[in-house]
Model the fold of this input.
Amino acid sequence: MTSVSSAVRGFERIGTHSHIKGLGIKEGKPLPAADGLVGQVEARKAAWIVVQIIKSGKMAGKAILFAGPPGTGKTALAIAIARELGSDTPFMGLSASEVYSAEMKKTEVLMQAMRKSIGVRIREFRRVYEGMISKMEVKFDRHPYNPWQQIPVGGKITLKTTNEERTFSVDSSIMSEVLSKGISEGDVVWIDEETGRVQKVGRAKGAESYDISSDRLVEIPKGSILKEKEFIHTVTLHDLDIAQSRSSSIISLFFGGPSEREISPEVRQRVDETVKEWIDEGRAELIPGVLFIDDVHMLDIECFSFLSRAMESELSPILILATNRGLTRIKGTDVVAPHGIPLDLLDRLLIITTKPYTREEIEEIIKIRAREEKVDMDEEALKKLTELGMERSLRYAVQLLTPAGVIAKERGSSKISSKDIDTVAKLFVSVKESSEYLRKMEEMFLK
Done:
């Protein structure tokens, strides 16, 4: 009898580009395969030069355009640039078709995308009471409007560190917050001296009362109970815009209503002025991120005009565009231009071309994706997928990995075989086969 053991893992989502770690450049030279990227040596070298330009602060008024056939790694290169700029660099991906929303103006969608691409790292020093709650007494009284209900009106909390232990009398707001967050004796907490806000850090080691618990175990704090701590918050300009717009709304002030869909220029101006003050005071720093717009040929002339103006702004992210179109009409006009982009904007772009992958590169990419998706296959299956990548498309070949893994598991094997690839290739057709099917069955489809 064969026993099968399975390990329960946490939720894990494998994205299309989750394997991309950087540009795969060493000492200024692209490696054949590194950081999840394969091939596209010239494009990666150009992207690396762009990263150096960005780091030196000389990217103002410029943007990047990746132009190449479908499935040649344009999105992967954009993500790799963001990874090279730092792990906390904001990355906002947008398809050009998303700007045509019935709820917001096109320019508002683009503006919000730009603001989501700019981060603000805020440093704040706060005086807090930190310690493990060794004892807690809650004082209850009748509700002023419901005499049959009791509410906390205050109490006493004893905080303990390795150096001292003190008892504090607290008001109803602090005690209500403590109870609402499920804080009990043995928990390590922070209490803000100025606002009285309470934050649970975790359960003190040695104070566990459960065999199984979701609480994080932490050490009992050292030093004095009252201390100054530095808090670092990273938010985007759009987050600050939303917070500012809510505070200026009477309805949301009283009832916490939903955020405004469109944000006024006055709100954004106030946010920009505030952020500049924080930067001047040394309390914050700006983190320019990457705004990636795919299928940029789908934008119309109004959107292109907006992007041209936005590129000159002081608060502008790194703009990366991508297209797989050649000579095509600019949306909203009768003018035909390269990539469907107005020539005056195209002239200001650093254009990087991507080329179709070779057989060896397709094989290496399939290996990388198989490792990322934790799929094992034999040599024949790898050759079969590589052939499909050459004949049909790389995307199609990569998409067959997971279905083939399911078929292999059904027949009790841990490895994908070439027969499994043949099976899923019949079940899931490529774009080319789908087009042929449509031509054959054209009369039977609705028009």
About this structure: The longest strand covers residues 118-142. The domain at 124-232 is CATH 2.40.50.360 (OB fold (Dihydrolipoamide Acetyltransferase, E2P)).
